[in-house]
Amino acid sequence: MKKILLPILCSLALFACKPELMIAPSEPVKNLSGNWQIIKATRNGTDLTTRFDFSQFRIHFTDSSYTIDSLVPFIVSRNGKWAFDDPTYPFKLSFQATDSSAKTSPLQYPVTEGQRNLIITFSPGCSLNTYQYTLQKAN
Amino acid sequence: MHNQPVQHNPSGKRKLSAGVIWKIIGGLLLLIIAACGITIDNVAIPASVNGGSVLPITLNVTIKIDQGQTSNFMVAVLVPKVWKTAQNAAITFTSDITSGDQAMTVIPAGTPAPQGGGMDWPTLLATKVGNGGNLLPDYEWVAFYSNASYPVSDNSTVHATVSIKIKTSPDNLLFKLGYCVANSTDGLSSSDRYATAYSGCFQVNGTGDLIDFCNPQISTVDPRTSLDNDIITLSFDGGVQSTKLDNASQVYLCISGITESGDSLSVCTQTDATKMTTLGLNKWQKDIWPRKLFNLSASQHLTGLRYWFTDASGNNKVGYAGGTAPFLYTFKCQ
Fold this sequence. Notes:
The complex is a heterodimer of chains A (139) and B (334). Chain A has 139 residues and is mostly beta strands. Chain A has a domain at 27-99 and 129-137. Chain A has one helix at 2-16; strands at residues 34-43, 46-47, 58-61, 65-69, 80-84, 92-97, 102-108, 111-112, 115-122, 131-137. Chain A has an eight-stranded antiparallel beta barrel with strand order 1-3-4-5-6-7-9-10. Chain B has two domains: 19-212, Immunoglobulin-like, CATH 2.60.40; 219-330, Immunoglobulin-like, CATH 2.60.40. Chain B has four helices and 21 strands. Chain B is mostly beta strands and 334 residues long. The longest helix of chain B is centred in the N-terminal third of the chain and has 17 residues, at 18-34. Chain B has helices at 18-34, 85-88, 121-128, 290-293, and strands at residues 2-4, 37-45, 48-50, 54-65, 69-80, 89-95, 102-106, 139-152, 156-167, 171-183, 195-205, 207-212, 219-222, 232-237, 252-259, 264-267, 277-280, 283-288, 302-310, 317-318, 327-330. In chain B, the strands form three sheets. In chain B, strands 1, 2, 3, 4, 5, 6, 7, 8, 9, 10, 11 and 12 form a twelve-stranded mixed sheet that branches.
């Protein structure tokens, strides 16, 4: 009996092993495509969201271009191209308006209450006056 | 140059019983008869100087000493910080117990004042003597000691003439200068050991927007430095002084933008674009983006603003210091 059982167990052990399929977790794609609106705005830390009319502002991102509707003080004033510094792990978002040099903002891309936010920081006037806008996709 | 009446600092009041009051009066009489005293008899200062020039001030001081001591003479001035007086002032004095000009040197910040509880002279002066009624916080006391100490005998009276020369900054400003004299032994230990005086509102005719320490600030602009592509907040505080808008239920902005080419673009109609938001207690606020408010083209830029506040009719208009002249704001970065 032992002579039969041992080869069977060995065979089972041999066939039980098979290469494991390793799948590396992938970083979610930062999808900017669509219309974004400002849901929060600060100037030098002071919240201006309800004090200034940002409600009509929209920025529409496509694969590499953007267009702006109802401009407010922003990092750029005209339509143009946009790019991440690193498509996989972006920390900066640059805007290149037509006929202008590129302007770059630090980028945060958190999910808040199930909604993807885009947070950019820039100075449209004096460099010591810092504005931070939080954008969210418009419905 | 003219002599200005000396304005002494008012003291605080407490409710005291009649007995205590008589004891205090008796004590004060004894003090006046027996103790020393120091007074600034007058201050000679020009009504104004041009920005960047030297401001000459003369103080006439009388010191009565009951008990002899040897001390350094102390003179302090209340000045705008922007003058950097510690580096830009020279103080000397003459007296009837000395010969020739006596030099004085600034007392380094951090040096404890005598009987000052560990505070240095600038801190002690600001705490005990105050700010002379200046309404902006950018002031400082700068104190000087005589280079020499002087023995003074019992029951003597000394007259001193103090010469203060301060090189002003180029800034355009209004300020209430203050002066304090004391000695290095007694410090500000009691009110008879030092004397203070203030000039009226002194003007430096300099460059740039007026930095006004004297008049209540009924309007402020935030940020203090900006360009026309910033969002700027214009505030009106009707509680600072009585104006034509005391009873206004709505306040509007009447504003002109001055372009680089010198053109004046006016927005002075009572609409939502100029309507200010109430903050209560007659305080109002408006956030504007000048580029949009004045509908500037891409090539147009503003150098400054002139503005007033009006009621809903537009007939009652309040400007600088509550008058008819506009408030001014210059676009610039630091």
